[in-house]
Amino acid sequence: MNRDERIRLAPMCAPAASEDLLAGAELLCRAFLATPDLSAKRGMVIIRADAADPPSLLITHGAAYQSLTVPDGRRSIADIVLPADIVGADHGVLSRCGHEIVAASAVDYRLLTGPQMRELIRGPRIALRVIALGAEARWRANNHLSAITRLDARGRIAWMVLDIFDRLRRKGLISQLNFSLPLTQDQIGDYLGLTVVHVSRTLQRMREERLVLVDRHVVIIRDLDSLRRVAAGLATLDAAVPKTPSPTARRPIEQSI
Amino acid sequence: MNRDERIRLAPMCAPAASEDLLAGAELLCRAFLATPDLSAKRGMVIIRADAADPPSLLITHGAAYQSLTVPDGRRSIADIVLPADIVGADHGVLSRCGHEIVAASAVDYRLLTGPQMRELIRGPRIALRVIALGAEARWRANNHLSAITRLDARGRIAWMVLDIFDRLRRKGLISQLNFSLPLTQDQIGDYLGLTVVHVSRTLQRMREERLVLVDRHVVIIRDLDSLRRVAAGLATLDAAVPKTPSPTARRPIEQSI
DNA sequence: CGGCTTTTTGATGTCCGTCAATCAGTGTGG
DNA sequence: CCACACTGATTGACGGACATCAAAAAGCCG
């Protein structure tokens, strides 16, 4: 793994803040776990886009997604929420969140209301944790954006699979090369900016190429290394020279701050 | 303006938090203004992707962008930073930010170092402000994503122009239908996931259609209403019926939380 | 002017969207 | 138990939006 990949891997927290941050994570988590266990069935809207003073959620089981419906009726999925993820920790400062949270599978979750969250973030350690959660979410959004603007269908799917794979693994939720992904191809399309039809075709091709197997709601990674290469944009299964990394790349003038 | 548009317009702050939030904004701003005035020339990297303990910036003059370079050498621009914007207020909690901030034009800015920011966010009002800044940035990232996945080249450009237009207007920096946008077509392409060639052609077409005029670094909006329609995805300059808003739209089961 | 970046233009190909039909899986009720 | 409806996945034909390649034109600056 080279330097570029490493810095792209995850937003590590600043050492100088890590102690308070850990404490804040612990406190916030405990606050969530002190609330009653709720659940939602597949397809249910957990937080509506126009909900006043939206709450924050801790997903304990299942998966959800964050979606935005554009004026012409099309849907765009901005993020996928996995077990142990906290959604909208910053909702406390907003009057409306502008997007809905929908259960992708049966979901168990805990909920802290807007007022509760506002009370909690008065504590500096929890505030720090909420800031870190926001930073991480934005970091992920940037990668998502980058994947969509720079990769073709195959690369986007590879990226999505690996992103979820790495997230689950980092949480210690899986140790194998397979996991459950409760998204329909339609939803995958809305997440990656593709149509169902093209998602179907591309998944099939990747299955034939023995890269990854996405069937129903189960993902099995067949060739992790190749998959990573595809997601990095320098794919071409048949090896081939991936054209030199643009020797004439327009790179801004370097200047350390 | 209907409800859908309104809730999409901007992430308004929760009334219950607005007082502290305003105070926090004021405090943070003052902290920035107490630092020396710095400047960067066009094209300079203000914060490097691998900078350890990255600082936060307040842009006082000019514009910058936040960019990510993918492994194959291609660049993707995640966000555009305008005057009065604060960049990376959450950098204090990260050890690396993973993206660079580059000056799009000559830029004047103030800088607070990682340690300084960490000290500041111990204050609950400033912490609140930082959380709000993060929420707003994520809200924008979601719209950006949505625009790129759901709109064609014409729609994306319309969206970009309007987004910047609205941001500048909300800050009170412009009152006319024209403003300066210090991005090359190449950078616009990297922001919208298009090639330079296609950006050039599309801009030209929009100029002919008298929608908007983007020349060199000046933007002049010719037909604001049409532009908004194009950005909403139900465009078609030649009017035409914009196909009914998908009567069969698969909408998740409604359930208020 | 000469060298640079940025924009424009044309020709050509392809990835992906659209339309439309079929098929498999799941659940429902008579 | 099977017809029926319904959602999700698959397949094929076709067209279009956008990428790629290549080169020229237009600004810009020393």
Fold and architecture overview:
The structure is a homodimer of 257-residue chains. Chain A has 257 residues and is of the alpha+beta class. Helix content of chain A is 42%, strand content 19%. Chain A has eight helices and eleven strands. In chain A, strand 10 (212-215) and strand 11 form a beta hairpin. The longest helix of chain A is centred in the middle third of the chain and has 27 residues, at 124-150. The radius of gyration of chain A is 19 Å and the shape is globular. Chains A and B meet through helix 1, helix 2, strand 2, strand 4 and helix 3 of A and helix 1, helix 2, strand 2, strand 4 and strand 5 of B. The first copy, chain A, binds a DNA duplex (30 and 30 nucleotides) through residues 152-153, 184-186, 194-201, 203-204, 216, 250.
Tell me the total number of β-strands of chain A.
11
Quaternary assembly: homodimer
- Tell me the span between the first and last alpha carbons of chain A: 26 Å
Q: Strand sequence of the main sheet of chain A, in spatial order?
A: 1-8-3-6
Rg for CA atoms of chain A = 19 Å
- Binned strand content of chain A: 15-25%
Of all chain pairs, the largest interface belongs to:
A-B, 92 and 93 residues
What value does the average pLDDT of chain A take? Answer: 85
Run of helices and strands of chain A: HHEEEEEEEEHHHEHHEEH
Helix content of chain A: 40-55%
Report the major sheet of chain A: 4 strands, antiparallel
Please give the count of helices of chain A. Answer: 8
Q: Which structural class best describes the helix and strand composition of chain A?
A: alpha+beta
Q: What is the approximate shape of chain A?
A: globular
What are the segments of chain A in which pLDDT stays under 50 over at least 5 consecutive residues? Answer: 1-9, 235-257
